[in-house]
Design brief:
Blueprint (H helix, E strand, L loop, with lengths): L1 H26 L10 H4 L1 E8 L8 E10 L4 E10 L6 E10 L7 E7 L2 E10 L5 E5 L6 E5 L6 H13 L8 E2 L5
Antiparallel strand pairs: 1-2, 1-8, 1-9, 2-3, 3-4, 4-5, 5-6, 6-7, 7-8
């Protein structure tokens, strides 16, 4: 009888520890990369995967193009094809402003004045071939690549790092891209 109580206590303690560890990982503050060279970051990016958002509903072959300006902000041009990879193109243009003392890794994107959304670069290839962007709440996530298709080993490495950062990857959705 005493042994059963002891086993149950250990089992309950282990379960509690697992839940507490899981909650701690999910609640850990989101870290950005230390520095982003905006001139290298500029150019065309293909959306590989994302947490679905209403403003991207029905999007395929989604791209984002960034242009650094002399005025200190970045022009953001997002495009996607609605309904299919060959569907009607949707386009929106905005601006991104770098947050001071963030190493250019934290931006605020504005598509409609006066609203700005946090755009944090949380993973970035040393050769700028891929980037991962999120929000400090972890409710938004985009995996970007310079090419429409991403090497599976690179993608799986990104996924492993996102799990370590506490992202709920059950929401992650791959995007249909042009071949």
């Amino acid at each position: 009888m005493q042994l059963t109580k002891y086993k149950n206590t250990i089992i309950y303690s282990l379960i509690l520890l697992i839940f507490m560890t899981s909650a701690a990982i999910k609640s850990q503050p989101l870290q950005t990369v230390p520095y982003v060279d905006l001139k290298k970051y500029a150019g065309l990016w293909h959306e590989i995967a994302l947490f679905p958002q209403t403003f991207e509903k029905g999007c395929n072959a989604t791209t984002a193009e960034y242009t650094a300006t002399e005025k200190g902000y970045v022009i953001v041009e997002n495009r996607c094809n609605k309904g299919s990879v060959t569907g009607k193109q949707s386009y929106i243009k905005g601006k991104a402003f770098v947050e001071e003392n963030s190493g250019n890794a934290k931006l605020k994107v504005q598509f409609f004045w006066p609203f700005k959304a946090k755009y944090w670069i949380i993973d970035l290839a040393s050769d700028y071939s891929y980037a991962v962007v999120s929000h400090p709440s972890k409710k938004y996530l985009w995996i970007l690549s310079r090419t429409p298709k991403m090497n599976d080993a690179v993608y799986q490495g990104i996924i492993a790092r996102l799990k370590e950062k506490g992202f709920d990857l059950t929401k992650l959705q791959l995007i249909n891209q042009l071949p």
